[in-house]
Amino acid sequence: MAVHPGDSPVHVALRTSDVDEARAFCRKMFYGPLQVTPVGDASNFFFAGDVVMIGPVTVGQISYGSDIRVNIADLETSYHVLAPLTGTLRSRHRGTAVLADPTRAAVYRPIGDIDLDWPGTCRLLSVKVERAALERELDAALDQQIVSPLLIGESFDVSEAPGRTWVALVRLLHGELCAPDALAAQPRMAARWRDMVISGLALTVEHPYGDEPAGLQGPRRPRTVKRTLDAMHAEPSRQYTAGDLAEIAGVGVRVLQEAFRQHVGVSPLSYLRRIRLDGVHHELSRSDPWQVSVSDVAYRWGFTHLGRFAGAYRARFGESPSQTLRDRR
């Protein structure tokens, strides 16, 4: 198994009775456009958050101690699951209301505002999975193109398998990564746990694929295309040429390019650049600007020309890489 940049797990914890400090923590760990508003008597407000991050997966065990309201704009880059361990969470997303409790988890798509009524008695697992990672997992499992964002169900049962198994897996991963010197903290082991969380979620949430009738299913991708995609995701920093990728696929360069345009929508090297850009963006958005530099991260992900990299990054994310590193909250 290849270990990519960003596979080393990170554990961050906060205990505070300061609402602003708790809000800033959640924005930095999860989403920028997030509002936390105490409801009624806030004298018992006490935020407790333990968050572990491993590649495209972020898992937090969160509680507030008093009743609050949380409002989040479009997630855009991620899917999200809230699984209460105690108490009941009232959730509204895309016109659907869900009561989440220890028997049922709430699920959120990248598009659509989220409104939460979160009582002080509710302690929950907050699981963020980056959009590309979950979609790529489902895409690979089905061996076909899927429509993004996924039309997943708004909740799932966690009182029995597979939901119960997935939550147990997430809790075990979280507990291991919060513990000092745990085996799961080793990058190679952590990467395996991470992949299990993503693949388990893909098998747990409802979606309009598989045996269900779905006019959304795209054409199956040829084996040559899938083989090339697997190679690029396994080693995104490798300096592939068009000829290298064609050799991996076992076809000529022009044949592979045409297959990619038909089944992926872009050329092989354009797709590889997108993987790298997403990797850099993920790493910069989680890094301490005093400890890393944009150039170091870019080089790790295979970019050798910083000027072209910066232009491509701005075109994809609407900001410079230094802005992501400096201003991400």
TrEMBL record:
Residues 226-327 form the HTH araC/xylS-type domain. InterPro entries: AraC-bd_2, AraC_XylS_family_regulators, Homeodomain-like_sf, HTH_AraC, HTH_AraC-typ_CS. It comes from the Bacteria. PANTHER family: HTH-TYPE DNA-BINDING TRANSCRIPTIONAL ACTIVATOR EUTR, HTH-TYPE TRANSCRIPTIONAL ACTIVATOR RHAS-RELATED. The keyword Glycoprotein does not apply. It comes from Paractinoplanes globisporus. PROSITE patterns: HTH_ARAC_FAMILY_1, HTH_ARAC_FAMILY_2. This is AraC family transcriptional regulator. The keyword Acyltransferase does not apply. Keywords: DNA-binding, Transcription, Transcription regulation.
